[in-house]
Amino acid sequence: MKAIALFSGGLDSTLAAKLIIDQGIEVIACNINTGFGSTKDRLAHMKNMCEQIGAEFRSVDIRDEYIREVLFTPKYGYGKNFNPCIDCHAKMFEVAKRVMEEWGASFLISGEVLGQRPMSQNSESLQKVLNLSNCEGLLLRPLSAKALTPTIPETEGWVDREKLENINGRNRERQMELAEQFGLKDYEAPGGGCLLTDENFSNKIRDFIAHDTFSVEDIPTLKYGRQLRLPEGAKLIIGRNAEDNAVLEAIENSKFIHIRTELVGPHAMLSRTATDNDKTLAAKLVLAYCKAGFEGEQTLMFGDEELTAVSDLSRNDAQKYFI
Ligand code: SF4
Questions:
Q1: Dist. CA 80–CA 237, nearest whole Å
Q2: Is the CB of 143 under 6 A from ligand 1?
Q3: Is residue 192 part of a domain?
Q4: Which of 69, 191, 261, 275 is the most exposed place for a label (fewest CB within 10 A)?
Q5: Domain check: are 16 and 45 in the same one?
Q6: How many angstroms separate the CA atoms of 102 and 84, rounded?
Q7: Where do runs of H (alpha helix) occur along the chain?
Q8: From CA 30, how far away is CA 107, in angstroms rounded?
């Protein structure tokens, strides 16, 4: 008997998987990559949690499908920011059901807790997710199972319902007790949760789609650097630190050109369709973020094209273009 666990690396999804593993069932912990979640740290954390509970870790990339089918057209709308949580959950279960069949598993589990998140984890929302994803009966939520309708794995006797939990609400005491009982270590997930719940990131997406069509290759261009929208519509991205600069430098995206200079300064990117005025402004703004100690006209490379500009703007001037 094999089950697929929807896995985020958080304590709840870890405990849900462990409760099923302890019933002698093989669990594959499946993290679904929407493009807006896991950082490198979180990936390492998920693998660590899986090692501790004896689950196999796998990740499934649905970024393209997510952008096409969920992000901009959620049937149940958005949460506080750009987070289409109900449709997103449903998509994850739909994908999990697909891999369940491919990987020869018999049912799905998730770490959802009834009443934990007032909007997305009340019983009505949990049911909507089942309806949307077509997983009715196959999805077991071990942490709240006793408060929910029995699922196929319970009625068929694959899982002993009596050994599952009856957690309801936001109090985390029972989860802490279970973590202690299972001897889990370092279970606090590092930052890097879902970016769609972040107000600033949501504004960046809104700005992007107001000017261009959005696709998978555009995701990294929203995650790194200072983001500026110039008066004639071009987008300028200026690295904030060595990490940003390294990531931006490596991005290959047909909508952008790279801006390079011999000076000590940030890596930057600009919309390929930028007008001459926006290009000149971009050059001045990039120079404003270069280390002082130069004078007069400076030459920058905009892709293969040379552009000469005078550094007469300050970092304060840049702020009015921030998204
Ligand atoms: S928080 Fe993000 S990943 Fe989680 S359900 Fe909502 S949109 Fe999906």
A1: 26
A2: no
A3: no
A4: 191
A5: yes
A6: 27
A7: 11-21, 40-53, 63-66, 85-102, 123-133, 152-155, 173-181, 199-211, 219-223, 242-250, 276-288, 315-319
A8: 13
Query: Are 228 and 275 part of one and the same domain?
Result: yes
Answer yes or no: is the C-beta of 85 below 6 A from any ligand 1 atom: yes
| 280 and 226 in a common domain | yes
Asked whether residue 22 falls in the same domain as residue 148, the answer is yes
Q: Which of 31, 197, 202 to mutate to test the pocket of ligand 1 (most atoms within 8 A of CB)?
A: 197
Q: What is the pLDDT along the chain (323 residues), one digit of tens a residue?
A: 999 999 999 999 999 999 999 999 999 999 999 999 867 788 999 999 999 999 999 999 999 999 999 999 999 999 999 999 989 989 999 999 999 999 999 999 999 999 887 666 677 777 887 777 778 899 999 999 999 999 999 999 999 999 999 999 989 999 999 999 999 999 987 766 789 999 999 999 999 999 999 999 999 999 999 999 999 999 999 999 999 999 999 999 999 999 999 999 999 999 999 999 999 999 999 999 998 888 889 999 999 999 999 999 999 999 999 99
- The answer, yes or no, to whether any atom of ligand 1 lies below 6 A from the CB of 33, is no
Name the domain count of the chain: 2
Domain extent, residue 281, equals 198-319
Place of tokens 């270069």: 290
The answer to whether 193 and 184 have CB atoms below 8 angstroms apart is no
Best probe residue, ligand 1, of 87, 89, 132, 201 (max atoms within 8 Å of C-beta): 89
Last residue of a domain, one of 112, 146, 181: 181
> Using CA atoms, how far apart are residues 245 and 146, in angstroms rounded to an integer?
51
Give the single-character DSSP code of 208.
H
What DSSP letter does each residue of 252-265 carry, written as one string?
Answer: --TTEEEEE-SSS-
Please identify, by atom number, the ligand 1 atom nearest to the C-alpha of residue 83.
Answer: 7
